[in-house]
Amino acid sequence: MPVSHQIADTAGTQNAASPAIADTAAAQHYSPQYLEGFPSNAAADTTLGSIGTLEVMEVPPTVEAVPFARSPLHDTPSMTLLIAGLIALALSYHTGYKYIENFFHYMFSTRRRENLFEDHTVNETSILAALIANTCIIEGFLIYMAVLLFRPDMAPSLLNHTFLHIGSFCVMALGFYAVQWMVYKVLGYTFIDKEGTKLWLDGFKSSQSFLGLLLLPVLILLMVFTSSGKMLLIVAALLYLVARLIFIYKGFRIFFSNLTSCLYFILYLCAVEIVPLVILAGVTNWICGIYQ
Questions:
Q1: Is residue 148 included in any domain, yes or no?
Q2: Contact at 8 Å (CB) between 161 and 291?
Q3: In terms of residue numbers, what domain contains 229?
Q4: Considering its fold, how many domains does the chain have in total?
Q5: Is the distance from CB of 204 to CB of 132 less than 8 angstroms?
Q6: Helix (H) or strand (E) segment spanning residue 41
Q7: Beta strands in 2-159 (DSSP E)
Q8: Torsion-angle region of 34 (φ positive above 0: left; ψ -120 to 50: alpha; else: beta)
Q9: H/E segment holding residue 195
């Protein structure tokens, strides 16, 4: 086909498509309305209708907001202290696990001559130190939670200085243990022989060590479920009372020889078991007053 005919056919095709393009451009063109603004006599919009005919959204019932209860679980230094005590206990377990196996023997036995074939731990110093440290740390946490729940007036200071309070309470618990140990040792050497004193002190150390293991799950529950704090603190107090009664029972078996010894034992209970707890409560209140 000659070139001139091809050009003519192409031009004809473009001319045929031009009306369609023009129609599309015209269809996409919108003429603006209200160029001079909205008329002042425009009719009111009746689409909405009367407000009384609209559906009313019901507000769902709500309850009073419960404030967020903080605990040592949210304080990093305090939890580091607790975990460090547990790690020390785990590391010393492989050398002193037999001491834990003989808990009940040390707590209840008053036999003065040991069986030559009785199995005792060789290196119990590390495990005993870890157990006592663990008990003092847990008691420090429990004292903190008790003050926080039963003395709400001190809550702002306790929450602002969590680690300072817990650290101070742990040191106080450790000091309380050391003072008790020295008092029991002096009383033992004064009123009984050396072997009886050793049995008595073994009962004290084992009962305190076992107490820390019993209080650990109570403390964890207390930090997680703070709403049940008072009930869990009562459980902790009962466990402490049971541990003390076990130790007192062993001491009574060691000391009792006649009716006169009962009088001495009653004086011992008042002077060594009751009065120190009152002093401990006063020291706790004094420590809280320092950080106020």
A1: yes
A2: yes
A3: 72-112+120-290
A4: 1
A5: no
A6: none
A7: none
A8: left
A9: helix 194-224
Question: Where do we find the tokens 């603006």?
Answer: 32
pTM for the structure as a whole? 0.72
CA-wise closest residue to 210 among 181, 235, 176, 240 = 240
pLDDT tens digits, one per residue of 142-190? 999 999 888 888 888 888 888 999 999 999 999 999 999 998 888 888 7
Q: Which amino acid is at 204?
A: F
pLDDT tens-digit map of 223-271: 988 888 889 999 999 999 999 888 888 888 887 766 666 666 677 667 7
* Conformation bin of residue 256: beta by default, left when phi > 0, alpha when psi is -120 to 50: beta
Q: Would you say residue 12 lies in a domain? A: no
**Does residue 38 lie in a domain region?**
no
> Which residues are within 8 A (CB) of 255 and not within 5 positions of it... i.e. 6 or more apart?
191, 192, 261, 264, 265, 268
CA–CA gap between residue 41 and residue 173 (Å, rounded): 87
Q: What residues have CB less than 8 Å from 60, skipping those under 6 apart? A: none
